[in-house]
Each structure stands twice: as C-alpha cells, then as structure tokens.
Amino acid sequence: MKAIARLIQKGKTLKEQVYAYLKDEIIVGNLKPGERLIEGKIAEELHISRSPIREAIRMLEKDGLLHVHPSGGVNVVKPSINDFRLLYECRVEMEPLAAFYAAKRRTEEQLEQIQLNLEQMAARSSQANKKMIHEINVNFHESIVKASGNPFLISLITQFRGINSFYRQSILDENPHHMNHALHEHQIIYEFILNQDSNKAHEWMKKHIENDFQIFMKQSHITAGESDE
After folding, report:
1. pLDDT of residue 9
2. CB neighbours of 144 closer than 8 A, spacing ≥ 6?
3. Is the pLDDT of residue 108 over 60?
C-alpha cells in the first residue's frame, strides 16, 4: 500500500476515507484473502494515527470483509467454495424478491437511478478497470434492492455485501468479459421494472443470479449439481 493523498477529502471523516481505501484494496485484490493487516504498518504508510484505522477495521468486519481475532489479529476474510454456495442460496431467493417489489413500488427517482447505473455499465463494460466495473455492478443491484421499499429485506441483503464482493470479483478476475453478458440480463430486468411487471422482474433476476452462479462454479471446476460435503 502507498500513502494516499485522497484521504484528504472535504465532507468525509478520516475513518470513512480509510474504510473506502481499505475496502478498495481488498476488492481489487491488492490485499489478498487471508492476508494479515497490521495497524501500525498501515498508519505508517498512510501517515495517520491508528484510531481511524481501528474504526475502519470495525466497519469492514461488519461488512464481512475482515476477520478480527479474539487475540487482536486482523485478516482479510478468505471465503470457501461452500461460503459462496451458501451465499447463492440466499441471493437466489432474496434478490428476485427485491426485484419483484421494486417493479411494484419503485418511484420515478429510483427508476432513474437504476437506469443511470445501467447506462454507466453499458458505457464502461469494455474497460479493463475491474474496480470500476465491480462498483457499477454493485450499484445496479443495490439500487433495485433499495427500490423494493422493504427495510427488512434491504437489511438482510446488506448483511452479505462483503462476501458478495469477493464472489463478484472472482467472476471478473477469471472472465473479464462476463459483464457484457450480465449487461444484457440487467437490461431485461430493468425493462420489466420499468413496465412494473413484477413476475417477470422476479423471474429474470432469478435467472441472472443462477447464471452467475453456474459461471462461478465452472470457473471453480465444480458443478452446481454436486452435493455439499
């Protein structure tokens, strides 16, 4: 890691900026799964005190990106194949439900946000910047979840945001052009939300997540039909 001038930003606390920086480092792979974080080393490299780093670490632990040991050690989470399989079981039920209610309840402002995310994805899907592509993809899905208007569903889906970041990034790492296929499915989902066709929005979000999972399992040399050990 390098000292970063962008930690000095108006309108954001230092802990928020350290949080954003460390999160980016994890998602793009500069901090590897299982790697240990040392507060003193980070403080020295970023030229800041340890206090905002500790606060950022707590936020990242809550996101599911860091594991803080009882002894005080901190490591980047290293998800297993089974973790991703269990994540899929949640996503394939919850996100289609969010799409169903987004089609019913979305406001015009929320619809515009979903469309904006889709347009950004179309404009940048061919770029090699994995971090940017990842963020656009996350924003599209989260804008639909928010449009569901169900705070309990939003809270549940937000809880597995961390491992979901590893999951999405692993697909992009192995198949950078996957976003072109995902973009097509996102466009279909958007159209059904636009037309307030809840059943089709649910159906296509489910297909989208199933397709993502099949791609991930093939990349991992594991078939989705295998039984859990």
Report:
1. 59
2. 95, 98, 99, 102, 114, 189, 193, 205
3. yes
User: What is the rounded distance in angstroms from the CA atom of residue 61 to the CA atom of residue 56?
Assistant: 9
CA distance 210 to 216: 10
113, 143 Cβ separation under 8 angstroms: yes
Strands 36-37, 66-68: pairing is unpaired
Average pLDDT value over all residues in the chain = 85
Tokens representing 190 are 């958007």
Question: Hey, what are 103's tokens?
Answer: 């089609």
The residues near 116 (Cβ < 8 Å, ≥ 6 apart) are none
Q: Mean pLDDT across the stretch 21-50?
A: 88
222 Cβ contact list (under 8 Å, min separation 6): 81
The rounded distance, in Å, linking the Cα atoms of 35 and 42 is 13
Mean pLDDT, residues 130-156 taken together: 90
CA-to-CA dists, residue 96 to 102, 187, 200, angstroms: 10, 15, 10
**pLDDT tens, residue by residue, 154-191:** 999 988 877 887 777 776 666 656 677 888 999 999 99
Query: Which H/E stretch holds residue 193?
Result: helix 178-194
d(CA 10, CA 138): 25
Q: For residue 199, how many other CB atoms are within 10 A of its CB?
A: 10
Give the pTM: 0.78
Q: Which H/E stretch holds residue 67?
A: strand 66-68
